Amino acid sequence: MSSNESNSNSKELLKMIGINKYFGKVHALQDIDFKLNKAENVGLVGDNGAGKSTLIKVISGYHSAEKGQIYFEGKKVRISSPKDSRALGIETVYQEQALAPDLSISRNIFMGREPATALGFLRKRVMDEESMDALKSMGLHLRSPNINISTLSGGERQGVAIARALHFEAKLVILDEPTIALSVKEVREVFEFVKQLKREGIAVIFITHNLYHIFTISDRIVVLSHGKKLADIKKKDTNVDDLSEIIVRGTIG
Amino acid sequence: MKKLGLSLILNYNINTSITFVAIVLFFIIFTPNHLFIDLRNLASMGKLIPDLGIVALGVGMLMICGEFDLSIASLIPLCSYVFVTLLMKGINPALALIILLPVGAALGFINGIIVVKTGLPSFIITLSTMMFWRGVVFSLSRMSPISITKYISPHPSFEKMLTGTIGRFPLQVIWFVVVAIIFGLLLHFTKFGNWIFATGSSKETARAMGINTNMVKTTCYIIIGVLCAVVCTLQSVRLGSFNATQGVGFELKTIAAAVVGGTSLRGGVGNILNIFLGILIIKIIENGLILMKVPVFAVETFIGLAIILFVIINNFIQRRTT
Tens digits of per-residue pLDDT, A190-208? Predict the structure, then answer.
């Protein structure tokens, strides 16, 4: 039985069953089941207030669910803080808060996980070299690891945040509206970064309002509405028009 | 290029150094008989500057972390009162100083814990604690100064260590520089320093990256409390007495020094070397104007003018360069 289970789960990275979350009287997540395979890219869509942010905050440890189970790599886990989730290999890139604007690239990449001597002194050279390596592996060629984030373009910032996830060998990267407020060219850059994650075998949850973006990048699409899962469809079985119909009408078919 | 690299690493603000040099040259040239560079004047500045300077380093670090502390204006006399009380109980001054350090730390901790637990602007919280502790000091001491010379003079080595001189060179300067170097290392070269910058630049990011921002902020307040204990001892020993108005005015002068040192009022930006120069600039303006026989009561007016000028020019140059 148990060997059977581990067999069927070998491809599975994350499984959430019957997740419920309340904020006071608001039932923000209602019996959500959510699955994600290794190296799979799932687009999470839905209107404002659909529960997208709440769901990813449960995964990243910001909220804990009142009911439901989470399995990661086949093992039942409890994620009660952002630290827990990072320890599992889950990196979340929040839209505007991913990076501290006044700090340099390398100080951002290693924020909270700085390599240091026993006395707490930063290993600055290690930070700089590894930062540049991580950026290069993303195809991002920046002048120096010491430039401040505030001087980078929106696309470059996403690149730095994703490079950080890559460097710390994340197994799952959650991207919260990574293309919001970006120019067309920058959006294309971000897509390249996301494709790079797939090549590295890293699973991605991609949150957006833009269905065209999801269709460019995701393998599967999950639609949430008013805290319920409305649809869970492979990209090849649907199209943008059908999907927007589902979101607008709030029901399937 | 290498120089540029360094300035990028440390967020170094060159305008402060230019201002510093300009002000020094100005007073060297325009004070009567070039009194400004007279050794006696430099020595007396060396005795005075560390009082404000040591605590201003802590305030600057806290501002980089994104918070303010006005309560120093009352923590200094309060610590001083505790110090005097300990001396009057017959406790050795060195031991009294050692006892005072955790007292300062506890006072700083109270500020920190209220700020992080309420989430309210620290400007208001520490304004309140400033008034609270001031009332306490005023009522305990009835505002009368207490001489401590008779408790200190039996321990000449204690006095010499803190406020003595080598030739004419005041030892306080060494303490000030030592504290500045420690802060420079802590802020720019350690893990904890990175957490301070991260917390000040974006608290949410820092938290998402697993940094305990409440702990970082509270620690900065505790450090300031300890500095107040050190400064009040230096000051009382130099003055030979406890004074209920010790440290009054420091709350805003420390902020002014940090701002002239290019520290952002929003947090996340700042540099210890610049803050150090900012402190010198404020004190040099004060000293130079007095040497130029500007009436003592008008000195603050000129300091106010100088700060506004600096901030406007600094802002202008920074907008030009970015």
Answer: 898 899 898 989 999 999 8
- What lies within 8 Å, CB to CB, of B98 at 6+ separation is none
Query: ipTM of the assembly?
Result: 0.87
The encoded tokens of residue B289 equal 């104007």
Instruction: Compare CB distances from A122 to B194, B268, B269 and report the shortest one's residue.
Output: B194
Q: Which residue among A98, A100, A121 sits closest to B190, beta carbon to beta carbon?
A: A121
A64 beta partners: none
Tell me which amino acid residue A113 is.
R
Task: Give yes or no for residue B8 having a pLDDT over 90.
Answer: no
Structure tokens that stand for B8 in this block: 């990028």
Mark yes or no for CB contact B205/A111 under 8 Å: yes
Entry pTM: 0.89
| H/E run at residue B117 | helix B93-118
Cβ contact, residue pair B210, A113, below 8 Å: yes
| Residues of chain B positioned with their CB less than 8 A from the CB of A111 | 194, 198, 205-206, 209, 211
CB distance A78 to A84 below 8 Å: yes
Count the Cβ atoms, other than its own, within 10 Å of residue B226.
Answer: 21
Q: On the CB side of A176, how many CA atoms lie within 13 Å of its CA?
A: 17
Residue of A nearest to B9 (CA): A146
